[in-house]
Amino acid sequence: MKEHKKHNVFVNGPISPNFIADSIAKHSTKTTIGAHDIFLGQVRSDVIENKIVQSIEYTTYEEMAEEKFHEIREAAFDKFELTCMHIYHSIGNVKAGEICLFVFVSSKHRAQAFEACRYIVEEIKSHVPIWGKEIFEDQTFAWKGNI
């Protein structure tokens, strides 16, 4: 089992479409890849008790969260035949409609990419200590569960 380099997962604010596009473009030279799968988590403008969510303020205990992300990455590399993997999660304020989670996996074959991407997203939601405070249009807030 090869230990992979730890990567900083957190991005301040939303993950921009340009960042996502650049990440995809960088893989065009990797000719052993036959499939990519991408998950983009986007903040919704849910209506809760007649209030509309304007944004989510993400917080975490970074050191612990980074360790959990690394464990998830290592487990996914062990479980699936992946060529590479990238995970980014927002910290701070992300408005409705903006991207807060970007998971990008690559493999030789599509089935491995599909399965790995779903596995990673579910593991993140189940095990990484990230909290979201939903901020409503009237500037009141509520803590969000299972972000």
Residue ranges: pLDDT <50 for 5 or more in a row?
none
Beta-strand share of residues: 35-45%
Helical content band: 25-40%
Please name the CATH topology: Aldehyde Oxidoreductase, domain 3
| CATH class categorisation | Alpha Beta
Q: What is the N-to-C order of secondary-structure elements (H for helix, E for strand)?
A: EHEEEHEEHEE
Number of domains: 1
Number of DSSP E strands: 8
Largest sheet: 8 strands, mixed
User: How many angstroms does the end-to-end distance come to?
Assistant: 31 Å
Shape: elongated
Topology:
Elements (H helix, E strand, L loop, with lengths): L9 E3 L4 H9 L9 E8 L4 E2 L2 E10 L1 H18 L2 E14 L3 E9 L2 H18 L2 E7 L4 E4 L3
Parallel strand pairs: 1-5
Antiparallel strand pairs: 2-6, 3-4, 4-5, 4-7, 5-6, 7-8
Helix pairs in contact: 2-3
